[in-house]
Amino acid sequence: MNAVAAEFTPERFSPLALARLFGGVGLFGVAAGFFDIGDAHRDIFASGDAAATAANM
């Protein structure tokens, strides 16, 4: 077995550690989605004015 294959064996990472890691990634995704819907959408898009929307981008 080469060194790279031995480095990434399933026994290296516990299921609990992986669950915590992916849970944190999921929470970050939710927070980024709230930011996109709430703050960024309001600041970028100008209702009824395509030129203002293009200028905001």
Which structural class is indicated by helix and strand composition? mainly alpha
How many β-strands, per DSSP?
0
Whole-angstrom Rg:
21 Å
> Major beta sheet, specifics?
none
Distance between the termini: 51 Å
Query: What is the general shape?
Result: rod-shaped
What fraction of residues sit in β-strands? under 5%
Low-confidence stretches: none
- The succession of helices and strands, N to C, reads HHH
Mean pLDDT: 80
Contiguous helical run count: 3
- Total number of domains: 1
Mind sketching the topology for me?
Layout: H1 3-7, H2 15-44, H3 50-56
How would you describe this structure in keywords?
single chain, 57 residues, 3 helices, mainly alpha
Describe this structure in words.
This protein has one domain. The protein is rod-shaped, with a radius of gyration of 21 Å. It is mostly helical and 57 residues long. Helices cover 74% and strands 0% of the residues.
Question: How would you concisely characterize the structure shown here?
Answer:
Helices cover 74% and strands 0% of the residues.
